[in-house]
Amino acid sequence: MPVFAGSELTCLRGDRLVFTGLEFRIAPGGALVLLGPNGSGKSSLLRVMAGLLKPLRGTLGWDGVPVSEDPDGHRSRVQYVGHLDAVKPVLTAAENLAFWAALAGAADPAANARAALDRLGVPHIAGVPGRYLSAGQKRRLNLARLLAAPATLWLLDEPTVALDRAAIALFEGLIAEHRAQGGMVVLSTHTDIATPGGEELHLDEFAPYADDEEAGDEDYEEEGAAP
Amino acid sequence: MSRFLRLVARDLRLALRQGSDATIAVMFFVLCVVLFPFGVGPEPNILARIAAGVIWVAALLASLLSLERLFQTDYEDGSLELLSLSPLPLEAAVLAKTLAHWLVTGVPLIVAAPLLAVLLNMDAEGFGVLVLTLTLGTPILSLIGAIGAALTLGARRGGVLLSLLILPLYIPVLIFGAGAIDAAINGLTPRPHLLLLAGILAAALPLAPWAGAAALRQAVE
Known about the structure:
The complex is a heterodimer.
Chain A: E1 4-13, E2 16-26, E3 31-35, H1 42-50, E4 57-62, E5 65-66, H2 71-76, E6 78-81, H3 93-103, H4 109-119, H5 135-148, E7 153-157, H6 165-180, E8 184-188, E9 199-202
Parallel strand pairs in A: 3-8, 3-9, 6-7, 7-8
Antiparallel strand pairs in A: 1-2, 1-4, 4-5
Helix pairs in contact in A: 3-4, 3-5, 4-5
Chain B: H1 2-18, H2 20-40, H3 44-65, H4 69-77, H5 79-85, H6 90-119, H7 125-151, H8 158-185, H9 191-220
Helix pairs in contact in B: 1-6, 2-3, 2-6, 3-6, 3-7, 3-8, 6-7, 6-9, 7-8, 7-9, 8-9
Pfam families (chain A): ABC_tran
GO molecular function, one term (chain A): ATP binding
Keywords (chain A): ATP-binding, Cytochrome c-type biogenesis, Membrane, Nucleotide-binding, Translocase, Transport
């Protein structure tokens, strides 16, 4: 059974240590909810997990094999949903989605795209160019990518931003379904997303000590997070 | 391979629907060349003498115009992150986007060039070689430009920085491109110039995507 785990992870952004000594472990069917105040490194951790960002120290392992030894394999099992929706204004929703499905290697990307839009409850936007979509519709389109281009590990950075309540409920169902099939989910959120049996990771526990903070860090709201 | 072609097709479709990049590049090219007879006077001998250089310099400048946009939109809307996470190697993605850029902005220049050569009273001996040098040279411009476009991603005034970074690297292409045409007009063989251009292209084909991908990885961090 594959296990996705990280140990001793330290992340540096600019000249600021975001978190240090971070450990996590996800088994198939598991969910990890990242919690913490603004600037505590939730997005950075997700980017590290995706391989977009190299950790300063520490290792990520998939089934005991370091991810850095098999970056191609890692990319093929990850789907990342970030803050940006990656929707091209001149392509229709279905074209946008089909492109990402094709890039992930889907046999029939157009059919995948239609089915995914159906599941997300927005089949009517299939022919609408990206520039006419609302923020919530763009977000649903971005989440539809998870279904159109299936991957084992979902990395979701505040996935429910701009979603209405019905869509959040729908999305919780998709997560449960994905986990039931042995998939893994890591998500960061400030609202409640139901992930029964999911583990929580509080990032402020891994914040570096206060003496690492120097004058000029006043911009960060949560200075008192470190002991 | 099919992923590569998908990306090329998607970029071509985007360019086709937005429509501006290709026409702007070729219009700029034509206008730039047309300015010279006004500036240096309509003396046919002088125009014929400078035709090769003028057309090549205008081609360099025209290809610079749209380069800034090569990765910019993908960077801003988050597509670049997803591209770098897709199973398609980032080097191949850079090559695909560069190929699409060349098809959209380079090929129209090649088509327009003979017309401009007539306008500048270029010797008919040079026409074939002009098209040949542009066919070999414009892909090099797109490839070298892709490195610059990737390096200047996220920089303020990236377009100006890009020109300063890239134009000096275009000099060898300009020398051999214009040199080949001059050689043909003067009854010499353009072969050495063309071979050197082909050599630069052969070197740029693997190196530029590799360097561009390295720069993009920095940009998405």
